[in-house]
Amino acid sequence: MEDILSMADTPYMYLLDLVLQSPMLESLELMIGGEGFINDQKVNGDWPHLKKLKITGRASDADLDFIFKNDLGNMADQGPYLSALNSSKAFGSHYQSLVNVDLRDCLKISSCIVPDILCLCPKLEILQARHVYARNVAERGLWACQQLRELNIQFLMDPSEQDLQQLVFERLSTLVRLERLTLDYDRCGDYRHDVLHFCLDCGLGQLAGLQQLTYVWLYTPSYSSWCSNLGTEDVVWIVNNWKKLKTTSPNYNGSAKVPEFIEIIYLSFSRSHPRQICRLAR
Question: Is CATH 3.80.10 what the domain over 111-282 is classified as, yes or no?
Fold first, then answer.
């Protein structure tokens, strides 16, 4: 059974009432506008068979706590840290069943919920989120999502946290079933932090085991230093190690000077992958 809960034009409490009567619910899509939920009465939804969760709009940590079953109490008087913690606990009972999670259009849900999803969802195959901070990745344990096939996210870190680059690559190296990797900065909007440096000096070589990759999208802001650290050896490594790669899209924002790199990766693919597509976006 698959039901979709939409907040677009129907009173949300009426829809929530309906969906609470669907214990076999497998797919839940929440589109929340305005200021989110304003009703003080918690829904305490619990769907043990929930596989797909998509949340869009202005959903917040408080909304997750409102919708999903949570024994930790109301979050109205709690600070942002405890609110984020409780929002994760709120739908934590669904971690064991979730296969597809899409939070990429949620502007107000805390990014610290993402490491919990990575660490606690053993059946997860698709995860789309805006970003996650490398320090939060470091604070959590090993990732449980070994079935992951598609990951769309960006890893952010302070300039003083460059030592965490290696750790992030170490975590990514465990995703041996990964087919599509998107490090998309468009959705982050956080210009105080640097991004993952996709080069050998920072740990790229740890991803040699990701032999199922067919698509890699890299979006880099102009202020990031990693594009200037790229060399021929990085591109050659990508071409030589990921034999199934069909599409790679290094996309640079602003005035980053990378024509040489663009030419190198184009020539590498045209020679070693003559029948494959190399889509280069500027």
Answer: yes
